[in-house]
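Notes to self, Endoglucanase V-like protein:
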Amino acid sequence: MTVTKAAAISAMKSTLILTATSLLAAAVHGSVVELESRATDGYVQNPSGTASFTFSASCATPACGKNVTGFATSISQLAFGSETGLGAGDACGRCFLINGNKDPYAPDYMGPFFGVVVKATDMCTSTGNEKWCGQTTSQPINSFGMSVHFDLCGDTGAADIFFPPGKSVLTGTYREVLCSEWWTGTDGLSQWDGACLDGESADNWPAVACGNKGTAPA
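result:
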C-alpha cells in the first residue's frame, strides 16, 4: 500500500520506527498477558504487554509536572501510578516502544503499521475515560481487552509518526525500553514542586523511579 506523508515525517520514520517483526514475541502470548501487581498500592506496572492507542491534541499540563519536546504520551492510571491531584506516578519519564497491529473498528485492515518510542509524561484517568483507561485492580483490562492504554500527545508529533493515514485508534503491544532509544528531546522546567521524570534514567520495571502515590483504581 502506498502511504503519503510529509517529507519530514518520512525522513524521521526511516530512523525512528521499528516494525513489528523486531518486537514483542516473548512478551505477549496470543491475546493473554500475564499481569503482575508488583507495584505498591495495587498499581499494575509491567514492562511489556498489550495496549490500545489513541491521541489527544495536547499534553500541556502533564501529571508528571514537566513537558518534553520529544514524543510523549499519557498512560492509563493503573499503570501510571497515581491519583488525580497527587502528582507524578512511577511511570513518569519511562520510555516505551509501542507498536500497533490492529484497528479494532476495522479488523480487516492489514496495515501499514508503525512503531515509535514515547516517553510517559501524563496520566489518563480511569474515571471519565472508562472505555480506554478504565483498567482497575478488579478488571485489569479495558473494553478492548488491553492491559494498558497510551493516549499520545499530538502536540509532540508522536501521533503523526505512529498512526497510519486516516487512523486514530489502534491496538497492539508495548515494551519498556531505555530512554536512549527515545527520539532526542529535552525536558521542560518543573511546573510544580514534586514534578518528576526520574523513570527516564531508572532501570525498567520492577525498578522504582518516581514512585507511586495514592491507591490504584479498584
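- Helices lie at 7-16, 77-80, 130-133, 158-162.
- Residues 7 and 13 are 10 Å apart (CA to CA).
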